[in-house]
Amino acid sequence: MSRSASRTLALVILAAVLACAVSGGLAAWRFHHKNPQAPVVRLDEYVVMGWVGWDSSWYMRIAEEGYSFTPGEQSSVAFFPLYPLAIRAVEALGPDVYQAGVLVTLLCGPLAILLFLRWARFRAEEPLAFQASLLLALYPFTFFLYGVMYSDALFLLLVVGAFLLLEKGHLGLAVLLGAVATAARPVAPAVVLGLLARRLEWKRERGERWTVLDFLPVLSALGFLLYMLYLDKQFGAPFAFAEAQAGWGQEPGWRSVLKLSWFKTVFFSHANAETVSRLCLHALLTLGALVLVGPTFRKLGWGYGVYCAVLVGIPAVTTKDFMGMGRYLISAFPLFLTLALLLRDHPRVRQGILAVGAVSLVLLSAAFGLDHYIS
Question: Residue 323's pLDDT is what?
């Protein structure tokens, strides 16, 4: 069953990648040809164009020019360094910077989902692990793992790998992978606390006493800390990545906590239907994720509960209008197994979710290729 499930999942991922590539590429062609002055490009380049947009330009700039920081303005320091470094490494092999970014995501995203299946087998029986993998593979915003020049695929691969190694008892390697992961996205508290809580829980499940070595997961923060040291040395501002958020109107404070911007846009402005529906979608997904955190504690244990609570909670509190949450939730991978466990006796509901997710993957890929702001 395990080999059959892996093959089936691989085929589903391949189909999803191809569908997203076609929809995104066709949409990029349509967007490109709105401009009669647009230069002619090769057919294969439209696929890359369909996967490059919005934050991709920041990663391109970092890979090509390095970091810059202007207090109070949008600055590249808001984006963590691991993904641009990976792009630069692949670019050295011959592809241009955009092709390199797409290749990094294409390599990491599908591999992360296959690795998720292996991890899920440690926490549930085979059929449920497979169902959870399908829920992740066909989650609407998972198209960001199928080629989009964003860092989510790389981070997910690393963090799933870290927890998988932890389940296998390879503490040192898990901590190492966790440390690399915290250099990819600003969610170090979730990774560190999640790995630490799971390690202590893992030892307790085996009836073993804790030792000093069991607290090694705190070293997973090294990737995050090294980036802070770099920012301090380069710009004299170790928290420049957080300060730069002001450039996007994401200042910390009660306005963000209370989501006043969200309420204003949705209920009291003349925003168009696309903007309102987009903000409502991200808000609903955030609410759904928060609802799943409680069952995750009960069904998967404190380690994964803590990881999801912190990973979902930080952006849910700090974002001004929930924008981007749909994509951020991909990294809360245990929630997909929790959902599969809750839907164990509701196959039709699960099938409906998968069908909606598959259609949404294609539609969101097309929207991204058309340069709509998705997440």
Answer: 87
Residues 6+ apart with CB under 8 A from 189: 310, 314
Query: What is the rounded CA–CA span in Å between residue 101 and residue 131?
Result: 30
% of the chain exceeding 70 in pLDDT: 94
Residues of the chain with pLDDT > 90, as a percent, come to 65
Rounded distance between C-alpha atoms, residue 136 and residue 142, angstroms = 7
Q: What distance in Å separates the CA atoms of residue 136 and residue 335, rounded to the nearest whole number?
A: 9
188 in Cβ contact with 221 (< 8 Å): yes
pLDDT in tens, 64-84: 999 998 887 888 998 999 999
For the chain, the domains span: 2-369
Which of 316, 18, 38 lies closest to 30, judged by CA? 38
The pLDDT tens digits of the residues spanning 244-268 come to 877 666 666 777 777 788 788 888 8
Q: Which of 313, 309, 321, 320 is nearest to 252 (CA)?
A: 320
CA-CA distance, 85 to 184, in Å (whole number)? Answer: 10
C-alpha–C-alpha distance, residues 39 and 36, integer Å = 9
Task: Dig out the tokens for 68 from the structure.
Answer: 């810059």
